[in-house]
Sequence to fold (810 residues):
Amino acid sequence: MTNRERDEVSGTETTGHEWDGLKELDTPLPRWWLFIFYATIVAAIIYWVLMPAWPIGNGYTKGILGWSDRANVAADVQGLRSARAPMFERLATATSTDIAGDPELQQFARAAGASVFGDYCATCHGAGGAGAPGFPVLADDVWIWGGAMSDIERTLQVGIRSDHPDTRMSLMPAFGSGILSAQQIGDVTEYVISISAANNRLEANTIAAGRGAAVYQEQCGVCHGATGAGDRTLGAPSLVDDVWLYGGSRAEIRRQIELGRGGVMPAWGERFDAGTLRALAYYVHDLGGGEADAPPPAPAAAPVEPSQTTPAPLR
Amino acid sequence: MSKVTLIPKPAAQNGELAVDAAPVNSKSYRELYKKREQIYPKLAHGVFRNLKWAAMIVLLAIYYVTPWLRWDRGAGRVDQAVLVDFEHSRFYFFFIELWPQEVYYITGLLILGAFGIFLSSAMFGRVWCGYACPQTVWTDLFIYVERLFEGDRNARMRLDKAPLSLEKVGRKAGKHIVWLMIAAATGGAWVFYFADAPTLFRELFTGTASTSAYLFVGILTFTTYALAGTMREQVCTYMCPWPRIQAAMIDKDALSVTYRADRGEPRSPHKKNDTWEGRGDCIDCHQCVAVCPQGIDIRDGDQLECINCALCIDACDAVMDKVGRPRGLIAYDSYANQQRRQSGQHASYRLIRPRTIIYGVLLAIVGAVMLYGLSTRDTLDLNVIRDRSPPFVRLADGSIRNDYVVKIMNMTDRPRQVAITIAGLTAARLQAPNVSAEGEIVVTAQADRVSAVRLHVIAPNTLSSGSHDLTFTLRDVETGDLAASPSAFLAGGEQ
Ligand code: SF4
Ligand code: SF4
Fold:
């Protein structure tokens, strides 16, 4: 050891540094601390050898254990898939009553449906099927193409105005582009308000509505029905409730008559297997407004709102 | 480094009573960058040594045996008396079964533990350190094993100095093997608290237990071996925070192991038939140093290193008996008493003082609150989660629907039929296929489980917009047990 200065009081060497007469003691590190420090160095070197550690060019040192997070995740995902496969198989052939009657299957369908819905559907329909202008609310009891689970699944399979050959297809003409005059459109708007539950808050102009009635029967009644109850087989929405796909203000209703907008829903039948599709249909059906499946030999269709949960609104 | 001069050996003048023991950890010996000096605690005999043996046996028995105790909770239920079941989020303690939301009982237990140790410290100083701390108990056990293989203090010192021989290797190897076995048993017993002990025991030996089980056995084997076998007093002196906190816990009336300097000094060796006039009772025999597991000299006064194991009391009492002086030169005593005696007053023990009364009362209060909580613990509870998206749904007829998930906690071991009702909003009603005329929905709550039910509540469009209070109530159809949870019903304006 070189001839270092020693502090008299503590007997410890100093570092030789001095500030305004204060000298710094060179107090040695505690041994346990030092040993742990050395141990961490050894551990780091072992780690370099065993695990991926150093970047080199485009790659990196792989380590002799061959650890790969990417491969592990892939294996985990695969493991999960095969673990869930039996449940999806059961789902694929289950009816809505089967699912509702089997708590385990129901929980699975809800969870699987919620997760797929969150990934693919919520972008347009909103979380929980909350809807947005132009994208129907799925949590309510108003359905354009039908709210039985089989209807919902069919819609999922073929989409709406999609590129699927059997897609659900309805077309509302843009009445503003030369079919009807501005005056006629205004009259029809008043008539539509007058037959709907929106009349309570918008109060239709009865004179204009009276003029609009004739135009309605001529142009709109074919699809939306004489009473405005809509027709699910054609995908014509009901006009009597107070739920509006493109907004329920007077201006918004008029604008839809002028433009005749219709959104596109992709066909998901090719994307998902049967079990996933059923889970998704169950989830949407279960959001709150799902309807019972119609008994197979359907009698002559009556022009009423076939809502299971709430009676149709009538003026 | 300069060599510290050892205290002159008094052995020659004291006959067989004296030992050549240096308090290697005392302040006068300690240097900063000094290697640890091995301590060879001598076996003490006496009241406190026996007390420590008893404490050791009882505490170790509790630790090793508890996971094996069974407790009948009904068919198909966990039958381990004490179990921390992480997988199913349950804590079992004999008749108590806690769910995750009841962790406050664990908090209560920690508070009880804290006040308990405060109270014991205020009364008897570091009794926890001296008798009950796992570090003390296992170190004591390891020293016992060491003594079995290598003999008492002198024999051990001789063995360590002796050149390598077959006997030395044999003794040392035997000691380390037994240490490792104890350490493994300690680690093994630890994991039994977290899984069914008989099952895990079988799995551990057939190689089918989980990796984490082996990992924890390994970790605890290592720590037990290292802390109790090789580190010993260093844990108390350097690693444990308690000795530092301790200073705040005791006051001048707290009892702690004390060398009564007023009686012992001036110390000097004493030969048979020498007079006791004009001298203290301490014959400077160093027996108290020889037995000390912490390597200190109690005659230096209160020290951070001293764990109050009271072995030096036993050692000195034996010496006093032999030289014919009264026992208690080293004894549980308080700082106040030392001062009283020095000023000619009578010594008096004041275990009951404001501080200990407050600790005691707090202990009793916390204990009573916990007991009350446990004995009147609800076995039925619910949690209502209102759907946030959509915040509300307007239906075709203009009415408004809110959706809820009601989580029903059935903390009993049988399924129960519970009726769900809502109250607080007259216009609202539950909507479901099975809702009764009274507006109730009856569901089955699975035994010992949380069951979730999705519910819809509908209110007419005449309801003013904004948030309305709504209460969900659960009623056990059989027993009439009730539980309620407040929630809200949101009626928006335009959607
Ligand atoms: S205090 Fe007791 S044991 Fe310690 S040296 Fe003095 S006489 Fe011996
Ligand atoms: S000084 Fe006495 S009480 Fe303190 S640790 Fe040593 S033997 Fe135990």
User: Anything to note?
Assistant: Chain B has three domains: 1-33, 36-374, 380-491. The mean pLDDT of chain B is 88.
